[in-house]
Amino acid sequence: METPRMKPAEFLDLYEQLLRIRTLSEHILEVYQDDVMETPVHLTLGQEAVAVGVCANLDKDDVLSLGHRTHAGALAKGMPLKALVAELYGRTTGCSGSYGGSMHVYDPEHGLHGSSAIVGGNIALGVGAGLSFSLQSKDNIAVSMFGDGACDAGVFWESMNYAALAKLPVLFLLEDNTLSNVMPKSKHLFPDPAAIASHFMPTFFADGTDVLSVYQAANEACGEIRRTGGPAFLHCPTKRWMKHQGVEEEDLPFIHIDRSKDCPIQKLERYLLGSHLATPGKLKEIRARVDQALADAVRFAKESPYPNPEVLEV
Ligand SMILES: Cc1ncc(C[n+]2csc(CCOP(=O)(O)OP(=O)(O)O)c2C)c(N)n1
Ligand SMILES: [Mg+2]
After folding, report:
1. Which ligand 1 atom sits nearest the alpha carbon of residue 153?
2. pTM (2 d.p.)
3. How confident is the prediction for the chain on average, in pLDDT?
4. pLDDT band at 312; cut points 50, 70, 90
5. 147 CB less than 6 Å from ligand 1?
6. What are phi and psi of 233, to 5 degrees?
7. Ligand 1: distance of its center to the CA of 181 in Å?
8. What is the pLDDT of residues 27-51, one digit of tens each?
9. Closest residue by Cα to residue 116 from 85, 156, 86, 78
10. Please, where are the H alpha helices in the chain?
11. Considering every ligand atom, which ligand is closest to the CA of 119?
């Protein structure tokens, strides 16, 4: 892989973003059993690199369309941590005013126009955003981010067909953790979506556990979309560390995870230290900043009000 051409500060920013998402997951693991978050959670533990590597190539006005597994994408696209944490705690200051929870996050200011728990549904919403950009002659990109399970849905194939026909600036981002809930890909998906996509749009591939690999591939894919105005496909195999939903570790016998080798954060740490882009002291400083930001966000959430039941009266 070609090493991305970035300034040292940009490498460190990727590190901080990965850590911010991971630290939130770890907080959820700590408190979830206490019933303080009345929302199902689909954690992004181990999968952080896909969203971070792609979003580092996007502008604020570019759109990211998310499914049910939202935390990494929302934060990487720029949603303030406080807004997401308050939403998880069910407070009115949350990104969806407490009505959405983990699966329905909303922050149009940062290109997050709502996420969908209908598997595959958000892919078409991303295409709609791409159509809107195209009709307005804007050179923005819409990213539809989805899992291998969503590739089983007709809407996935229809969306790619339409985006290619109408030449829309859409990045189809496959975050492939090889699982649809507990079902392995070999049992739920026959074709290789990237191989088929490659017949009608430029197709890219990245190691989804390596943020630099994702950054580089997304950089090329986004460059292609901005140059041609048409769609591209990016396939990122990754690993899900937790069960599909909730806070228990994955224990499917056919899933093998090495928490050091497969960890996007440790991978980047090794690269930063090995190439002298950061010192251990600098990384420690970033970790402290991220911990403080999470503590502030949790305090903000806990001090925020729950919704007033009267708002539900018609
Ligand atoms: C249309 C539809 N069918 C089924 C479900 C139930 N469901 C929720 S998540 C999920 C698996 C999705 O797998 P994938 O798209 O690979 O995403 P991942 O959870 O792996 O991130 C399923 C089947 C749903 N929410 N919507
Ligand atoms: Mg999956």
Report:
1. 1
2. 0.98
3. 96
4. confident
5. yes
6. -125, 135
7. 6
8. 999 999 999 999 999 999 999 999 9
9. 156
10. 8-31, 48-55, 71-77, 81-88, 121-135, 154-165, 185-188, 193-197, 211-228, 264-274, 280-303
11. 1
